[in-house]
Prior knowledge:
The protein has 740 residues and is of the alpha/beta class.
Amino acid sequence: MDRVPALEEPLKKLLGGPTAKVMAEHLDLHTVGDLLHHYPRRYEERGQLTKLAELPLDEDVTVVAQVADARVHTFNGGRGQRLEITITDGSGRLQLVFFGRGIHKPHKELLPGSRAMFAGKVSMFNRRMQLAHPTYAKLGADPAEGGDTVDIDSWAGALIPIYPACKGLESWKIAKAVDAVLPSAQEAVDPLPEALREGRGFVSLPEALLKVHRPRTKADIEDARQRLKWDEAFVLQVALARRRHADGQLPAVARRPAPGGLLDAFDAKLPFTLTEGQQKVSREIFDDLATEHPMHRLLQGEVGSGKTMVALRAMLAVVDSGGQAAMLAPTEVLAQQHHRSITEMMGELAEGGMLGGSDLGTKVVLLTGSMGMPARRQALLDLVTGEAGVVIGTHALIEDKVQFHDLGLVVVDEQHRFGVEQRDALRGKGKQPPHLLVMTATPIPRTVAMTVFGDLETSVLDQLPAGRSPIASHVVPAQDKPHFLARAWERVREEVDKGHQAYVVCPRIGDSADEADEAKTAKGKKKAEEAETADKRPPLAVIEIADQLSKGPLQGLRTEILHGRMQPDDKDDVMRRFGAGEVDVLVATTVIEVGVNVPNATAMVIMDADRFGVSQLHQLRGRVGRGSAPGLCLLVTDMPEASPARARLNAVASTLDGFELSRIDLEQRREGDVLGQAQSGVRSSLRMLTVIDDEEVIAAAREEAATVVAEDPDLEHLPGLRTALDALLDKDREQYLDKG
Length: 740
């Protein structure tokens, strides 16, 4: 396939080594094409200034503002000098500080009334935002005055592009680099099929690149954005459509439950009826299982909506048809929990071939890395002979020595915690590709599902089973109102007095390995950064908090700890005793986040709640209110009332709707983080498209992509689209999509 030579040109050839090195290391830009797709974050108009009031803390920013005043202060008995300059934009003010010899040039150049672009990292000092030693370029200044100046008119007239920048490479320097490579945009090969481009009235790709970097009007920016968004959405959807098409060509064994078999026997002994949602989703899954190509389905459901029940019925249907089903869980705690709850639900049906077991039954085995040798050997034997129809395990299931008799279905719980390689390795253990059911309790907005899981069909469970209780959530501002925290511990005691149990969750373990990690992180930090973060204490730890509680406000209660570094047998013992009601309060890390089911636990206190993500808090909260008694979740934080962290916690406290929260979560995190995590950790390809706001673009691109791939699966007649796919799907990402 022909490469585009001009766009593949390494940046160091055009820009020189030092600049290219900074671009490669800090912005991941290596070629001319990379730089042309490094779009401005926003545009400044000559008469309009940035909103200083909205600057993000700890980020490199570029602002355009006017100098309001400048003052030199002395300290250390007159030996030290500090220049403080206040800049304004009409919406807010920001302080710039320069020290020592660095004060002379800005003091001479940045006079009140002058305007400039300033770049630096936003920090907090004395509860005020500031830029320490920012670099700056005066706007429209006379080059004869010396210093780093920018002539706005040479910068596309009134619209100044502000680029995502980094330390050592300010926005205006990136703009100059873009000027150097912009002529190469003429050689950009258009990925959109001509009929599609003309039908939707898009400008050509070279024109879009020119307009996005050097717009003359706001209409230019809009034209470019619409076009470039479509490129990103369409190329990604084509990749996913090709994946779906390829999956459709694979053979699989159709799996249908036998009438009067294991599934019917299981349904007959259920003490409740399935919700409408569970019945509908089960029908979708059974329809997929009955086809002769592999099912690829994503089952997403609210915390506690009964996904495990739906998955178990699918597994039993496969066992009915003579196959085996494997459930892959991300942690040993969760694998053991699933094994316990599934064998309890199945009763004698989980004891096939054993004394007292049902004739219709099968064996349900557990396989984890920490099992003793005899138990492990027996489990492996049960799998290879087909004696065990259902296996639940951790990544230990993936090891080479694990062989199945006839693997028909793989269920992956909490998909975002598994590498693609792990899923792929397990799927490779079937004689033919097994069916795949991926489950997640993290609700995913429709657009993210279309973008990240676009190769999977989606089923949604949004109805809670009858008998589930509501969960009340409250923010506890420990710093502002210490008596609120004291009341939180009283509430825990009250719940225990009623015969219930409680969780206390901390972000850190607090053991020596923890401290070693922290020491490593702290090493090499600059003194200036140390001064900035001096007031940030380390996160609260399980071991310390458990000790404080058992000697203080929860004295006399049976308190235990649980975290990921404990021995597996110890973890299992603690969870078993907590489940049996022998422990009143479990102080734990997020190891309890998924799948832990103790209906008698009604209260949860999350310490340093601001250090967890929105979706994670929602997951954790889902561990309480699982029985008939109402649940209570208290979010403890030291963050001040007006902070973004408090706004996030207030959002969690105000709604139990996981889809609404996942939307908030996505809006507050950077898009790339969301997609990068889900797409095997490689950098996000989305620079212009935002999955929350561009739902219509993504949905339309998905339809167009399906049509294109149906007509020409190998894209033989669309070389431009093939080239764009190669650029989008670097090796890692292509592997990710190929493995599905």
